[in-house]
Specification:
alpha+beta, five-stranded antiparallel sheet, four-stranded antiparallel sheet, 1 helix
């Protein structure tokens, strides 16, 4: 049996811990891990400089995956550049050259870009090529 003075000391500590935990949860100090967002689409005859739809990213890495690629010149490669939509000239990040997705209709190529902060992003296809059109059976952007 515990002495009465020790039991009396434990009760206020429990209440304080419960109130502090509840307040932290309400204030968002204990947050669930961020979930990645994705969008899926396809490309049909996307010409040089084609811009994808924009997505709003709250930060973190971005992965772009193409599955089942073809092009009209049989180059068997497509460049993909991540860009950030801004009021001035849009900053652009490293080009990824996708080739594996041309092997078959189920083959994939993907590129991952580092975190460049929150904002609206998009990708550009073949921004340095002239006349090459690419078709992508399916694409997924994870951000």
């Amino acid at each position: 049996m515990r002495p009465a003075h020790l039991t009396a000391l434990r009760e206020p500590s429990r209440r304080i811990a419960t109130v502090a935990l509840g307040a932290a949860a309400v204030l968002g100090l204990i947050a669930a891990p961020a979930q990645a967002s994705t969008y899926s689409s396809h490309l049909t005859g996307a010409g040089p400089g084609f811009e994808s739809s924009r997505w709003n990213d709250s930060g973190g890495t971005t992965n772009i995956k193409f599955t089942g690629c073809t092009d009209d010149y049989n180059d068997k490669s497509v460049t993909v550049r991540l860009r950030k939509d801004t009021f001035g000239p849009d900053p652009s990040y490293v080009n990824a050259v996708f080739t594996q997705c041309f092997v078959s209709g189920t083959s994939t190529s993907s590129g991952t870009w580092a975190d460049h902060g929150s904002g609206a992003y998009y990708f550009v296809v073949n921004d340095a090529m002239v006349g090459v059109r690419v078709t992508v059976k399916s694409l997924t952007v994870t951000y």
